[in-house]
Write a structure and sequence with these properties.
heterodimer, A: 86 residues, 2 helices, 5 strands, globular, B: 357 residues, four-stranded antiparallel sheet, 28 strands
Chain lengths: 86, 357
């Protein structure tokens, strides 16, 4: 299992927990697993097409990833809203 | 007492006050979040808000209780599976003419309908499936469905406006749609392009006159129009005293179908008040002539912008209330149909929408 780290309103809708151990071979599978577990998250990280929203960044073990990034057991996946502003 | 529901760039504000006197902020909710539109449905008392997080996408929330408490996210606010884009924004929410019926308009040119007072939503399939949709052109604010005009007492008849896909009319409760753009001549298009019905018709705001439902007024991108045949055709009414034909907001008096109110801006390339003076222009003769009203409004070096949903009305007739908010956070109101104005709030975040009950 990989570990998914969520923050802010995503954490609130994910049972109030910031860390989730989930099964999945890619970032997209991990995010879909989290949505299945917490339907209130539907539409928040993934849009209605199943794409990661434009201003959500994904880091896998500290490096930028995307929906297709392959995962290994114990990988850490951070879901981070884009930092905007000057 | 009048309640104002003010959507801003940084949250939803609720104000209460007596028409013509002061208003107080009684609640701020969704702090820090852009609230594009919000209203209290006068039929149910329910508050509905469109919140467009730049990170998590547009959502509709509602509450039947204390607005500072929990709000419920309404399901169904998403595009159909065949969409090649995600829902960008909700621009407007409008009560319909059947029990529990509420409409919402959004980008990309999508109409949502709710049959349970806003608790759940579905895409209007008839408008979504328009064969010409792939050819629709967005305006500067996106492909936004921003005006929804029910027909008082008849839920079958509906008109909506999309920037820049123009006017769309339905006589069967939204199952089928046809265009209503005859007479609209965009000043930014070459004459040869007018025959192309997909060339951009950049409608900015449309309202239907409740006392004469076949009459609608339209603020266009560089023109002002009126229709007396339910939106089938339009006549230019911008020649009679307006300082500019450009602007966004529009409000009507439900008691008088001859009256309309506009807040003109200089031009598309200078979206501020003409001469740096804040004035609301009123017609009492269906657009033949327009008169400026500015008593109590800033009259010097006031380069305000008022967005398309930031102008609303309550009441009717000589005691008609009008309220508008600016992108610089000021909120103004009148309780005598525009004769005199007062400041209802200052130093709010940029105002996106104002509704009143």
């Amino acid at each position: 299992m990989a570990v998914l780290i969520v923050r802010g309103p995503i954490r609130d809708r994910a049972g109030g927990r910031g860390e989730h151990a989930l099964a999945g071979d890619s970032v997209l599978e991990l995010l879909r697993s989290l949505e299945r577990e917490y339907p209130a998250l539907s539409g928040w990280v993934l849009d209605e097409r199943g794409a990661i929203r434009r201003h959500i960044n994904i880091y896998v073990n500290g490096e930028r990833g995307d929906a297709t990034t392959a995962l290994q057991v114990r990988d850490r996946v951070d879901v981070v809203p884009a930092i905007t502003g000057g | 007492m009048t309640e104002l529901t003010v959507g801003t760039k940084k949250g939803l504000f609720l104000l209460e006050g007596e028409p013509g006197s002061g208003f107080s902020i009684v609640a701020r909710v969704f702090p820090g979040e852009p609230v594009d539109f919000a209203l209290r449905d006068p039929r149910s008392g329910r508050l509905i808000a469109a919140v467009s997080s730049p990170f998590y996408g547009p959502k509709l929330f509602y509450t039947d209780g204390d607005p500072t408490g929990e709000w419920t996210q309404a399901p169904g606010v998403e595009l159909p599976a065949d969409a090649d884009a995600a829902l960008e924004r909700i621009w407007v929410i409008t009560p319909g003419e059947a029990e529990g019926l509420v409409y919402a308009g959004g980008d990309p040119g999508v109409l949502f309908e709710s049959h349970d007072g806003g608790a759940s939503w579905q895409v209007n399939a008839g408008l979504w499936a328009q064969p010409s949709r792939p050819h629709w052109q967005p305006g500067g604010g996106g492909l936004c469905l921003h005006s929804i005009c029910p027909w008082p007492g008849d839920p079958d008849r509906l008109a909506v406006a999309i920037s820049a896909a123009g006017m769309w009319l339905s006589d069967d409760r939204g199952r089928s749609w046809r265009r209503g753009n005859t007479g609209i001549a965009p000043p930014y298009l070459p004459a040869e392009a007018l025959a192309d019905e997909n060339a951009g018709r950049c409608v900015h705001h449309v309202e239907r006159a409740p006392a004469r439902p076949e009459r609608l007024f339209m603020q266009f991108h560089g023109a002002v129009y009126r229709s007396d045949d339910a939106g089938e055709s339009w006549s230019d009414i911008g020649a009679g005293g307006l300082p500019s034909n450009f602007g966004f907001p529009l409000a009507l008096d439900p008691a008088d179908p001859e009256s309309a109110y506009l807040i003109p801006l200089v031009a598309d390339m200078d979206r501020t008040m003409p001469e740096g003076r804040v004035r609301v222009y009123a017609t009492r003769d269906a657009g033949a002539s327009w008169v400026a009203h500015g008593e109590g409004l800033p009259a010097e070096h006031a380069y305000l912008t008022v967005l398309r949903q930031a102008f609303c009305r309550a009441g009717a007739g000589p005691s008609l209330q009008l309220y508008f908010g600016s992108t610089t956070g000021e909120l103004f109101g009148t309780a005598d149909a525009g004769q005199t104005w007062m400041t209802a709030a200052e130093r709010l975040p940029p105002v996106y929408s104002v509704t009143a009950v």
